[in-house]
Amino acid sequence: MKNCLKVPRILLPREGFETWSVIACDQFTSDRAYWQRVESRVGSAFSTLHFILPEIYLGENDEERIAEIHSNMFRALDEGAVEKLVRGFVLTERTTLSGVRRGIIAAIDLEAYTMGRGELSPIRSSEEVVASRLPARVAVRRGAPLEFPHAILFYRDKKDKIMQNLLRGDLEELYDFDLMEGGGHIKGYFIPEDVSLEVAYDLHGKGEPCFAVADGNHSVAAAKAFWEELKPTLLPEERRTHPARYTLVELVNLYSPAVVFHPIHRVVKETDAAALIDFFTGNVKCKREGNVLIPNLPAGAAGVEKTDALIEAFVRANGGKIDYIHGERELRALASGEDCVGILLKPLDKDDFFDRLKGGGNFPKKTFSLGEGVEKRYYLEGREISYD
Q: What is the CATH code for 261-370?
């Protein structure tokens, strides 16, 4: 199989890791207070908060915010807030309530990635990509000198040989700190280039696809969309080597005990709650707890497809806004409002993950989440994607 990984030169902050690292932009999309607390803690310090557009703010002066993101990145470079490591991967060790999740930070070749249904490739999206969610992300990437992605990709290693071999090595520690807002603890270790090349070879296991996006599907899809936009402007030699051809990801073993699938629940806001409950329970047998419905549907793709079809049909006819919520407690809190209905879904079976993707398959959008909301990947490592 063609090597679809690249050993990058990774960027890290020179200091202030605790305020530098913030959670993925697509988390807490209905919790403005969360992001306000983060903003208050970070203040004017150099931070990845200033390099992203949290989705809760989408539609609020997007162009101005994106221009400021680009300016903040150039300022971080100009003032030496980041340092560039020599070529190598990074081993991360994230401790959360789900356990110790280890990953390998590497760059993937976007030429080896596809997202369309039925397309075969070494690297696959795992869920349907919603086109309307890409423009803002592509706009952030367009004109940016740096990237700080939050994507996690799965590989398969049932005996966990790759990670165990790395853990036996004497690796240089890069960072060791607590993540803000209950994100747990994270450590990072540098993997030298020669060892990284061996790891890259071992990661290319058998099976189709070889790697699959577990989290951050729209982050990777936006990087791909920007690369396809940029590619026609480049000479053939430039296309082979341009940094925007690659994007940084964290590679995690699907069979790690710390990999826990959680469902992404649905909430319909600003709607006629009683009418929606009658409509939904008239089509699916449910247990009802106030304005929270627990449908008797299978876990994974089939249950999500049925749920989405029903609530989308209701909203088209009657109005309302659909949101996707990580965590049962958060769902129940939102569904306590008079004009809201929450739908509690079941978690995906881990063994069904790669089977669904064979032959270019995809899960419906927002089928699963890795861990609870606070366990999602935090921005930390970055790399250059422009020659400017």
A: 3.30.1760
